[in-house]
Write a structure and sequence with these properties.
mainly alpha; Growth Hormone, Chain: A; 79% helix
């Protein structure tokens, strides 16, 4: 990386945070869930609770993110999150005890929140002073690390499962840990070209959360609805008789769509603003989530993957842009942490509720319908959010 790299390039390098936190620490579990569930004899509820534990950890991490950043510095706290997540991935395959695996999923969530939220704050600060479209692009590139992680794991995990006759889920977790170590090294290099966001002035440490209430409520519904899809869609495809190789291709397509989707959505989000863009993104997600149930055919599964993969990360971008527009720059880290807490409650409930519904109705289709309805509600809730765009000076400080 050059002494003064382009800020978009820095955002790309820092996308190691979402790559580790979500691509490896959360979403890859969907690929490893079927063989783990079969070997360890789990119900859908038990399998869902593991990602609920990850979401609980994410919520705990989000609650502590601002304080940790204040004590250690945002960059150091971001790196600590990456390291903790990778350590949890490394330790997961060393046991078959449900309680230990549950604890590792919890720790991966805590570290993932620190990596994801604080990395976003660093990127948002780096984009201050630029145009709304460029700021949205930087955030989109950053969040696109999640899609890159999904693409890489979609290539690596099914391969190792195929090579081991479906029994290699432990090796799969070790591969995830190795990828996480490499991404952490990239993040360390990127941080040399960033500055920590300025702390809020003493008078602004206490602020009205209701300022972003509608946006936060919509983000809650997003967390409740989207994670259930990404936790169980692979299991649902296998319920429908889709083979391992087709499922692997589906996951890679979903990951590629996530990478490209953040670029496609960047300009509309910059033009629409956070709240209206959030509504459009959640509407797209609802269509993608419901499609596999309405049309249980292979072509519809892939269209669903493109719609969901191409949109879910842009909900995070839209939320971040909304926070930038509504709050002054000094409160961006606090605002991102608060919306992430609300989101964390939603995603904490999502996998467990979907798993419980699947067990109750003997299949995952009803759970996906539930997620579709929740996403539609979230699309409606975003619309009343007032979003006055603050005037920004040369440093991007809202006035």
């Amino acid at each position: 990386m050059s002494p003064h790299p382009d800020r978009v390039l820095v955002a790309f390098a820092l996308s190691a945070g979402p790559f580790i936190a979500l691509g490896l620490g959360r979403f890859a579990y969907a690929l490893l869930l079927p063989p783990m569930r079969e070997e360890l004899v789990w119900s859908y509820s038990a399998a869902g609770v593991l990602n609920t534990a990850n979401a609980v950890g994410y919520l705990v991490g989000a609650l502590a993110a601002a304080t940790l950043a204040h004590r250690l510095g945002t960059g150091r706290a971001f790196l600590l999150g990456c390291v903790l997540t990778v350590l949890a991935l490394l330790l997961t395959p060393l046991t078959s005890w449900y309680a230990v695996i549950l604890t590792m999923r919890l720790l991966a969530g805590v570290g993932g929140a620190w990596a994801f939220v604080l990395g976003a704050a660093i990127v948002a600060a780096a984009g201050a002073g630029g145009s709304p479209g460029r700021a949205a692009l930087m955030l989109g590139v950053y969040y696109g690390g999640s899609g890159f992680g999904m693409t890489v794991t979609g290539l690596a995990i099914p391969w190792i499962l195929d090579e081991t006759g479906g029994a290699g889920w432990r090796q799969g977790w070790l591969i995830l840990a190795g990828l996480g170590i490499a991404a952490t090294v990239v993040a360390i290099g990127a941080l040399r070209h960033t500055q920590d966001p300025a702390p809020p002035p003493e008078g602004e440490k206490h602020w009205r959360r209701g300022t972003i209430a509608w946006l936060s409520a919509s983000y809650f519904c997003f967390g409740l609805g989207y994670l259930a899809y990404l936790t169980f869609i692979v299991a649902y495809l296998q319920e429908q008789g889709v083979g391992q190789r087709t499922t692997a291709v589906f996951w890679v397509v979903l990951g590629i769509a996530a990478i490209l989707g953040v670029l496609v959505w960047a300009r509309p989000i910059g033009a629409l603003g956070g709240s209206r863009a959030m509504s459009a993104v959640l509407l797209t997600l609802a269509v993608g989530t419901g499609l596999p149930v309405l049309v249980p055919q292979v072509w519809a599964f892939f269209v669903s993957g493109i719609l969901v993969g191409g949109s879910f990360l842009s909900a995070v971008t839209a939320m971040s842009v909304g926070v930038r527009h509504v709050l002054p720059q000094a409160l961006w880290t606090a605002g991102l942490a608060f919306t992430t807490i609300v989101f964390g409650v939603g995603q904490m409930l999502g996998p467990w509720l979907t798993g419980a519904i699947a067990d109750r109705f003997d299949g995952l289709a009803t759970g996906l319908v539930f997620s579709t309805v929740v996403l539609l509600v979230g699309a409606a809730l975003a619309l009343p959010q007032r979003e006055p765009v603050a005037t920004e000076g040369p440093t991007g400080q809202g006035r």
